[in-house]
């Protein structure tokens, strides 16, 4: 097969792939966590997340999972150090935070705390108009 024929085959295949898949926002956080299955249960119980899919590796770790919380999609996986994928616990923290807007911040904050989340700052009214708290 000539290079031109090969390029045509690749181009035809690429043209069939959607740049932005259906039912996905343009920005999707992808979390690497130590204990992805436990994280999914936490997000389901505390935030009402719905599991879209889960792909387990033969060793039991999650290679990929997707959740919906409201209109947001979150992807996550266990850490795979051999591939350079490390969780915040392994690297000593993360510079990333996520904000989740909910109807009753006090109730959700209490449920997260009861489920084992560590309080970094308690819920309070902020000068910019939001009522927020922070867990890790």
Helices and strands, with pairings:
Blueprint: H1 3-15, E1 30-33, H2 36-47, E2 50-56, E3 62-69, E4 72-78, H3 88-91, H4 105-114, E5 119-125, E6 131-135
Parallel strand pairs: 1-4
Antiparallel strand pairs: 2-3, 3-4, 5-6
Question: What's this entry about, in short?
Answer:
The protein has helices spanning 3-15, 36-47, 88-91, 105-114; strands at residues 30-33, 50-56, 62-69, 72-78, 119-125, 131-135. With 136 residues, it is of the alpha+beta class. The chain has two domains: 22-98, Signal recognition particle alu RNA binding heterodimer, srp9/1; 101-136, no CATH class.
What does this structure look like?
It contains 4 helices and 6 strands. The chain is α+β, with helices and mostly antiparallel strands and 136 residues long. The protein folds into 2 domains: 77 residues, Signal recognition particle alu RNA binding heterodimer, srp9/1, CATH 3.30.720.120; 36 residues, no CATH class. It has a 4-stranded mixed sheet with strand order 1-4-3-2, with helices on one face. A two-stranded antiparallel ribbon has the order 5-6. The longest helix is centred in the N-terminal third of the chain and has 13 residues. The radius of gyration is 19 Å and the shape is globular. The mean pLDDT is 90.
- The radius of gyration is 19 Å
Distance N terminus to C terminus?
Answer: 55 Å
Order of helices and strands: HEHEEEHHEE
**Would you give the CATH topology of the largest domain?**
Signal recognition particle alu RNA binding heterodimer, srp9/1
> Whole-number average pLDDT?
90
CATH architecture of the largest domain: 2-Layer Sandwich
What is the topology, as strand order, of the major beta sheet? Answer: 1-4-3-2
């Amino acid at each position: 097969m000539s290079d031109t024929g090969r390029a045509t085959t690749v181009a035809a295949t690429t043209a069939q792939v959607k740049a932005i898949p259906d039912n996905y926002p343009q920005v999707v956080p992808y979390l690497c966590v130590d204990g992805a299955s436990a994280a999914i249960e936490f997000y389901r119980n505390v935030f009402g997340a719905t599991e879209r899919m889960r792909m387990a590796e033969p060793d039991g770790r999650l290679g990929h999972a997707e959740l919906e919380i409201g209109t947001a999609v979150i992807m996550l996986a266990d850490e795979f150090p051999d591939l350079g994928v490390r969780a915040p616990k392994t690297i000593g923290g993360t510079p990333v935070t996520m904000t989740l807007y909910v109807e009753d911040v006090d109730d959700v904050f209490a449920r997260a705390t009861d489920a084992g989340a560590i309080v970094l700052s308690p819920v309070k009214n902020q000068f910019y108009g939001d009522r927020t708290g922070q867990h890790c």
